[in-house]
Every structure is written in structure tokens, then in C-alpha cells.
Amino acid sequence: MQQMTMLNSLAALLVSWIFSMVLGYLYIRKMRTAGLSQPINPDGPKTHFAKAGTPTAGGLFFLVGITAAVLLFGNIKHPYTYIPLAAMWAFALVGLFDDVAKIAKKQSVGLRTSRKLAMQVLVAALILFLQSKVSGLQSTVVSHPWIPSLSWDIGVWYPIAFLFYMVTFVNAVNISDGLDGLAAGVSFGPLLLLSILAVLFGTGLHVDYIQAPIHEGGMDLFVVLAASVGGLLAFLWYNGPKAQVFMGDVGSHAIGALLAISALLMKVELIIIVASAVFLLECFSSLVQIISIRSCNKRVFAMAPLHHHFEKKGVSESRIVNRFQIVSAIATVVAAVLFMVKYL
């Protein structure tokens, strides 16, 4: 049974890649014909003006490819399949509203920040409600990432922590999506680690504190994660420098949601925080910049988030992307080591 699921996962990866490649080609042609593109921030780096006219909201085509592959090879009735898919699509819709608003207004800013945040919290609450309806997925324990005996039962605070975790990850990936290949490339490390953990849990690695259904659903989650890797590989085909398409908020919201909900379902929240260090550092840099400007009227960075700071300092886009991907790979290895120290 496990061998069959492994084959299904690999098939899902390949089919998702093929579907997304075909859909991406058609999507880019259609968007160019319709003249629908990403508005460029006038205050951004000058090199970005050359990207004017690039189609946006490309996350739609790899989401469709991922979903089609999961429907073909996954067990859609299992919560470790339908909850991640629901999270991805629900947050993607929020991102899509933002992308459409940008295109309609022909501005780099779409929805108001407060409205967008409210929608994200509402969607996270709906996913929490969906999870609460599944027996065995109500664990409120958070485990220390490297000390085997240390964990915390946060009890009634768990819903708030759940919402904060999901919304933070979604915005962290969204903020990081500013250079060709950056967000998609950096996401591979955490996604691959989540895939390995899903296989380990699904094939018999028994850890007392984790949610019991993971032992039966780990391989189902692996199908979703494998399909996501395939879809993102296809997206990178078109998004590598010079990008033919941007993923838009619809794509970044979906990726952030998948990373967060997968970590929450497997109870490896702190491990994935370490693996996602680049995303969270990008988010933190924007937060620091906002606080500094509003409280002291001073800029900590030449421009936030961090990748734009380096652009302003004259570092080439390709070098920034490559180095951020390297840092992401190292962070993923560190997270994997912490996991091995704790569980193996």
C-alpha cells in the first residue's frame, strides 16, 4: 500500500509538472493578448521598470495543475489531502482579489492592508474550523524543536497561535515574492523537508505527541506536497530570469498556506520556522522598517523587504536570488538536523 502511494506521489509530481507547463504556456499567451500585467511600483528599484508588461497571477496555472494531479492520484476524502488543498485555494482567492485590484487600478497596491489582513484571518479561521471537525486533529501541544523532553500545551491559546502562524507564513511568502524566481526557489527547501517528514511519519515513525492521524495520512499529504513541487518546477520554468510571468499574490498566498498547514498538521511548527528562515527574515525586515519609519521617521533599510535593500545597494537580482536560495538550503539542513536530534 505504501509503495503504491509512493508511486502515486511521484506520478502526481510529474503530472502536475506537465499540466502546469501546458497551462502556463497558454496562460501567458492569453494574458499577453489581453494586456493584463503586473503594475510596477514607481518607488521600487529602477531595474524593475524593464519588467513592465509581464503577466501576473501566474499562481493560478500551477494551482490548477497541482489540484488536477492530486485529484488523479490522491485520496481526496482524507483530511491530509483535502485540508491542504482547501487552505491553498482559500488563501489563493484572497491573493486573487488583490491581484485583480492591482490590475483594475493599474497600481502596485491592490487591497487595503487592513482589508487584506481581515480576509486572511477569516480564511485561517475557516481552515481551523475545518480541521477541528476531524477527530484526532485537535492537539494543542507545541514541541521544542531540538530538546526531546520539552513541549508546551498551549490549550485555549492554540486557535490564536494557529491563526497567527498561518497568516504570518502567508504574508512572509507574499513579501518575499519580489524578484524573478525568489519566492518559488526559496520554497523548495521547506517543501522538500515537509515531504520527507510526511513520508517518515506515514511509513511508521511513531512520535507520541503528534496527532495520531498522521500515521495514516502522512503519505496522503506527501501526494499533495509532491504535486506542489511539480507545479512549482513548471512555474520556475517561466519565472526564471527574465520572468515571463509573476506568480502574484494568488501564488504566494497558496505557497505560504501550504507550508503553514502542512507544518500544523504534522505538528512540526517550530522545525519549519527554522527551515523557512529566509521567508520570515524578509517579513521581519518589512516589519522593522514600518516600525522605524512610523516611530522614528528613519529607515533601517534602503528599501524593505530585505531583497530590495540589497538591490538598492547595487547587488544584481540574480545574485540576490542565488544567495537567498543558498541560505534557504542551509536553513533547511539545520532544521533537518534539529529534527533528527529530537526524533531519531
Helix/strand/pairing category: mainly alpha
Query: pLDDT average, as an integer?
Result: 88
- The figure for the number of domains is 1
Q: Please state how the strands of the largest beta sheet are arranged side by side.
A: 1-2
Largest sheet: 2 strands, antiparallel
Shape: globular
Radius of gyration: 19 Å
Distance between the termini: 24 Å
Describe the structure.
With 344 residues, this protein is mainly alpha-helical. Helix content is 70%, strand content 2%. It is built from 12 helices and 2 strands. The chain has helices at residues 2-34, 59-73, 79-105, 113-132, 158-176, 182-202, 214-239, 248-266, 269-275, 277-296, 306-312, 317-343, and strands spanning 141-143, 151-153. The protein has a two-stranded antiparallel ribbon. Helix 1 (2-34) packs antiparallel against helix 2 (59-73) and helix 3 (79-105) packs antiparallel against helix 8 (248-266). The longest helix has 33 residues, at 2-34. The protein starts with a helix and ends with a helix. The mean pLDDT is 88.
In terms of topology, how is this protein built?
Elements: H1 2-34, H2 59-73, H3 79-105, H4 113-132, E1 141-143, E2 151-153, H5 158-176, H6 182-202, H7 214-239, H8 248-266, H9 269-275, H10 277-296, H11 306-312, H12 317-343
Antiparallel strand pairs: 1-2
Helix pairs in contact: 1-2, 1-7, 2-3, 2-7, 2-8, 3-4, 3-7, 3-8, 4-5, 5-8, 5-10, 6-7, 6-8, 6-12, 7-8, 8-9, 9-12
Keywords:
single chain; 344 residues; mainly alpha; two-stranded antiparallel sheet; 2 strands; 70% helix; globular
